[in-house]
């Protein structure tokens, strides 16, 4: 599996991807999921991929080659056109491979996050689906996740909004990734983190994070430690508190009442041997 | 959907369930997922259910009725036998319904957590599958989740171990539930929380938690607030730090190197019009 997350903030874009890939638990290896397309001063685009690795590598190959001079990521006039070129690449791979995959009982499974900025336009972020269609991040919904997304979603939901500074957003993405790494063995290091500052039109902040990375280790240690500390500071429930209305004990229900928590009790208990 | 979690600790058992059920987004209603079987002084058993509601209600009905005098939750000699009786109830429903469900294109989907204590034995916790087989919680793996489990898993993985006091464990279950509620609309209030103290052999701590519950509201507010606070206290990544080895910037890779993060650049950039 995979976990990738990207955020579109007022200050720019944050992209983070893991690098674990597996075809069954006995076939685990490392494949990075991030591809950067850059023409300094003119455009920076980042592609994150999840799903069938053969499909996403084919998509990446098509996009990196950009053989069609008239319609490629290098010539796209804006990010919407660029996203549709990514979608077309997915459809091209679908046309080439989907039938054979179906014959083999394999779903055409790929999911992409694609974002960046082209000179003259704002930074934009898209989620491209296996059908080649896509949606764009908005201020109300300013991030996308692909792959094993659920473990790392709550912390993002609690923290991320467009006004979040880039450093905070990168930190949040790493905490989200840490939660995922901790709970799911199919997601693994190294991580690729790219933070794009709006209007920089070049990659200035990219890092590949492995076990030795001091900052990520600090986050892992500090976050877990402080989380337990905060948790310890919150009062435990008081079952014998003076306000029982807040904690009503279950009443004995002799009959099953569906739609209610059932407290079945055995009337004939006395007859047990 | 559903989210239920239960933990087996040295001090006892904690059970928490939500009450949202849905058959599509236009058919959402409330159905509680907790059933308590109690014979004070002799046994307390708690069943949490996820999956197809018709199946889990049928299982519950069979277990609550306990028609087979010789083999019911009321007569089981130990929790292992009780768990196998739950498994048998699942198989009984399967025998009755699975064919018709399959004809209708519906999977036989049910997942149960079942735990408690019978006089003379320790408290035990089981995860019962749709096939009627089951596994038991161990000190190494002392909790089970069913339903929408992923959102609330990281916080449990960070905090729960058998030595955790019951109050802390209940609090952790509620934080885990809060994270799930925040990220997934298919899980909803009210919640049923039951905390069982080893050897009490009766239900002493049960509460149904709705929007008005002051303790749960405190947890939701405090946890979110303190989480943001702790998050703010952790340093942002420093991209221009004195130790660039920790944050190496990506090197320009002119060629695609698969297995590496690809930084594709267009050599013919100068020829663009």
Topology readout:
The structure is a homodimer of 273-residue chains.
Chain A: E1 3-9, E2 12-17, E3 20-22, E4 28-30, E5 34-39, E6 43-51, H1 53-65, H2 79-103, E7 110-118, E8 124-128, E9 134-136, E10 143-147, H3 153-159, H4 166-183, E11 191-197, E12 205-209, H5 214-233, E13 262-265
Antiparallel strand pairs in A: 1-2, 1-10, 2-11, 3-4, 5-6, 6-7, 7-8, 8-9, 11-12
Biased composition (Basic and acidic residues) (chains A, B): 264-273
Region (Disordered) (chains A, B): 250-273
Protein name (chains A, B): Peptidase
Total number of helical segments of chain A?
Answer: 5
Strand order of the largest sheet of chain A: 10-1-2-11-12
**What multimeric state do the chains show?**
homodimer
Largest interface: A-B, 90 and 91 residues
Number of domains of chain A: 1
Name of the CATH homologous superfamily of chain A: Aminohydrolase, N-terminal nucleophile (Ntn) domain
Q: What's the CATH class label of chain A?
A: Alpha Beta
Give the tally of β-strands of chain A: 13
Q: How large is the radius of gyration of chain A? A: 24 Å
Helix content of chain A: 25-40%
Largest sheet of chain A: 5 strands, antiparallel
What's the CATH topology label of chain A?
A: Glutamine Phosphoribosylpyrophosphate, subunit 1, domain 1
Query: What series of H and E elements makes up the topology of chain A?
Result: EEEEEEHHEEEEHHEEHE
Strand content of chain A: 25-35%
Protein name (chains A, B): Peptidase
Region (Disordered) (chains A, B): 250-273
Biased composition (Basic and acidic residues) (chains A, B): 264-273
Overview of the molecule:
- The structure is a homodimer of 273-residue chains.
- The first copy, chain A, is an alpha+beta fold.
- The first copy, chain A, has a single domain (3-227), classed as Glutamine Phosphoribosylpyrophosphate, subunit 1, domain 1 (4-Layer Sandwich), CATH 3.60.20.
- In chain A, 30% of the residues lie in helices and 26% in strands.
- Chain A contains 5 helices and 13 strands.
- Chain A has a 5-stranded antiparallel sheet with strand order 10-1-2-11-12, with helices on one face.
- In chain A, a hairpin with a 3-residue loop joins strand 5 and strand 6 (43-51).
- In chain A, helix 1 (53-65) crosses helix 2 (79-103).
- The first copy, chain A, is globular.
- The relative contact order of chain A is 0.17.
């Amino acid at each position: 599996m995979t976990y990738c997350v990207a955020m579109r903030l007022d200050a720019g874009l944050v992209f983070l991807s893991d690098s674990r890939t597996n075809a069954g638990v006995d076939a685990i290896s490392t494949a990075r999921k991030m591809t950067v397309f850059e023409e300094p001063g003119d455009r920076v685009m980042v592609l994150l991929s999840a799903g069938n690795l053969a499909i996403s590598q084919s998509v990446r190959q098509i996009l990196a080659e950009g053989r069609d001079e008239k319609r490629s990521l290098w010539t796209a006039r804006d990010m919407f056109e660029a996203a549709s070129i990514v979608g077309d690449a997915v459809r091209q791979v679908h046309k080439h491979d989907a039938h054979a995959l179906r014959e083999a009982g394999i779903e055409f499974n790929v999911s992409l996050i694609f974002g960046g900025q082209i000179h003259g336009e704002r930074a934009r972020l898209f989620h491209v689906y296996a059908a080649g269609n896509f949606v764009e991040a908005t201020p109300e919904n300013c991030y996308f996740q692909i792959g094993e997304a659920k473990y790392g979603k709550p912390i993002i939901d609690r923290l991320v909004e467009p006004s979040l500074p880039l450093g905070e957003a990168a930190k949040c993405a790493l905490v989200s990734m840490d939660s995922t790494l901790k709970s799911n063995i199919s997601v693994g290091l190294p991580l690729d983190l790219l933070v794009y500052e709006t209007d920089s039109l070049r990659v200035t902040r990219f890092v590949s994070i492995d076990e030795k990375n001091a900052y990520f280790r600090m986050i892992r240690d500090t976050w877990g430690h402080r989380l337990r500390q905060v948790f310890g500071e919150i009062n435990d429930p008081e079952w014998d508190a003076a306000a029982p209305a807040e904690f009503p004990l279950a009443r004995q229900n002799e009959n099953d009442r569906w739609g209610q928590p059932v407290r079945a009790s055995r009337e004939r208990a006395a007859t047990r041997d």
